[in-house]
Design goal:
The chain folds into 2 domains: 238 residues, Type I PLP-dependent aspartate aminotransferase-like (Major domain) (Aspartate Aminotransferase, domain 2), CATH 3.40.640.10; 122 residues, Aspartate Aminotransferase, domain 1. Helix content is 38%, strand content 13%. The protein has 13 helices and 12 strands. The chain is globular and about 70 Å long.
Length: 375
C-alpha cells in the first residue's frame, strides 16, 4: 500500500538525535546552558534579543502580560486563527476582540479592527497566517495612531521576510512557535523577540515563576536559593532537551526553508490551471510557508473531500475554525462576513520538507479528479 502523504509532520535527522542524546548523557534536562545557546543563536539570527519559552502560546501570554495587558483590557485579533491566540489573551484576564480578515491574504483587516476600537483597546495581535504577513506598514501605522502595542503572532512565519527584513527582526514584539510541525521545531517551545529591554526582563523572570534573575543562574548550571518575586510568574521555561533540537534545526534552517518554498511554488504553478481552486498568492522568495492553504469556490462538504482524498492516501485539513464560532468566545451579535464566507471553502494541502515534487503532482492530480465530479 502506498504510504500516506501526511498533511504535516516533524522533519528530524541524525543531527537532532545526537544533540538530544548529548543532553541526556549530561544528565541535566531542565533549563540550562543549551537554552542559553539557542537564545544566543536566535538573537544573532534576528539581530535583537530573544527569550525562549515552553510554547508559542506561552510566548504570546508572557508578551501580553509584559506590556501590562490585563483584566478589563481588549486586544484586537482576527477570528481566523488557532485558539491559542485567543487563549493567550484571556489568560491575562483581557478580552480578545474578534476581527475580520483581508480576503486576499487571510490576515487581519485593520479597517475592521479600527471599527471595533474602544477606550479599553490596548493592543493588536496580527496573525501571520500561513507565513504571509499582509501589509505590516498599515498595521503599524494604525497602531501608532491609537497608541497600541503590537504583538505579532508569528507562529507560522519563522524565516519570512517583509521588505527584505526578517519578521522578528523588526517591529514591536514578535512571538514564534517551535512545536513539532512548525518551520523549525524544538519538539515544543517558542520564543519572544523584541528590542524592549523591560519586556525582555519581565519575560525572562516570569517564565521561571517570577523568580528574579534566575535565568542567568540557570544558564551557568546554578539556581536561585535566596530569591524574591515581584510579578506573577508561570512555569513556562524551555528545557535543554528542547533547545538542543532547536539549535540543530536552526543549523538546518536554510535547507528546510528552501524545501518549503520550493513545494509551495510547485503547488502554485500546478494549481493555476485548476478552475475550482484559488490559491492565496505569496512571494515565496520571501515567505517561508508553514501551511499551504487554498480556497475551493463552491465547496459544500469539506469532510467528504477529506474522506475522498484520504482514500487516495492523502491527508488534507483546514486552518482554522474561527474563534467566534467556539462556545467560549461566541458572540451571537457579531458578524464577520469575509471570515464566514471564506472559512467553509478553505482547504490545507500537505506541506513539509519531506514532500517530493512527485507527491505534489499526485496531490494536485487527485484533487483535480475529485473536484471534477464533486463540485
Amino acid at each position: 500500500m502506498k504510504k500516506i502523504i501526511r498533511l504535516s509532520k516533524s522533519c528530524l535527522g541524525e543531527l537532532e538525535k545526537k544533540a538530544v542524546i548529548k543532553v541526556l548523557d549530561g544528565e541535566f534536562l531542565g533549563m540550562g546552558s543549551e537554552v542559553k545557546k539557542f537564545e544566543n543563536l536566535l538573537s544573532e539570527y534576528f539581530g535583537r534579543p530573544a527569550v525562549c519559552v515552553s510554547s508559542g502560546t506561552a510566548a504570546l501570554h508572557l508578551a501580553l502580560q509584559a506590556v501590562g495587558i490585563g483584566r478589563g483590557d481588549e486586544v484586537l485579533v482576527q477570528s481566523l486563527t488557532y485558539v491559542a491566540s485567543f487563549q493567550a489573551i484571556t489568560a491575562t484576564g483581557a478580552t480578545p476582540i474578534a476581527c475580520d480578515i483581508n480576503p486576499d491574504n487571510l490576515c487581519i483587516d485593520w479597517k475592521d479592527a479600527e471599527a471595533k476600537l474602544t477606550k479599553n483597546t490596548k493592543a493588536i495581535m496580527p496573525v501571520h497566517y500561513s507565513g504571509g504577513v499582509g501589509n505590516l506598514d498599515e498595521i503599524y501605522a494604525f497602531a501608532r495612531r491609537y497608541e497600541l502595542r503590537v504583538i505579532e503572532d508569528a507562529a507560522h512565519a519563522f524565516g519570512t521576510k517583509y521588505k527584505d527584513m526578517r519578521i522578528g527582526g523588526i517591529g514591536d514584539i514578535a512571538c514564534f512557535s517551535f512545536d513539532g510541525i512548525k518551520n523549525i521545531t524544538s519538539g515544543e517551545g517558542g520564543c519572544i523577540v523584541t528590542n524592549d529591554k523591560d519586556v525582555i526582563k519581565k519575560i525572562s523572570d516570569a517564565r521561571l515563576l517570577g523568580v528574579e534573575n534566575d535565568s542567568e543562574k540557570r544558564a551557568s548550571g546554578d539556581r536561585s536559593w535566596d530569591f524574591d518575586v515581584n510579578l506573577q510568574g508561570w512555569r513556562y521555561h524551555m528545557s535543554d532537551i528542547m533547545a538542543a533540537i532547536g539549535v540543530s534545526q536552526l543549523k538546518r534552517f536554510s535547507e528546510l526553508a528552501s524545501k518549503r518554498k520550493k513545494i509551495a511554488k510547485i503547488y502554485s504553478s500546478l494549481l493555476a490551471k485548476n478552475q475550482y481552486i484559488f490559491p492565496f498568492l505569496h512571494n515565496y522568495d520571501n515567505v517561508v510557508p508553514h501551511i499551504y492553504v487554498v480556497r475551493v469556490k463552491g465547496l459544500q462538504n469539506r469532510n467528504e473531500l477529506q474522506k475522498r482524498m484520504l482514500e487516495k492516501q492523502i491527508q488534507i485539513g483546514y486552518h482554522y475554525k474561527p474563534n467566534h464560532f467556539l462556545s467560549i468566545y461566541k458572540n451571537k451579535s457579531l458578524s464577520l462576513p469575509v471570515t464566514e464566507a471564506i472559512f467553509p471553502e478553505l482547504v490545507s494541502l500537505p506541506l513539509h520538507p519531506d514532500i517530493s515534487k512527485e507527491d505534489v503532482k499526485h496531490i494536485v492530480s487527485s484533487l483535480d479528479d475529485i473536484l471534477s465530479v464533486f463540485l
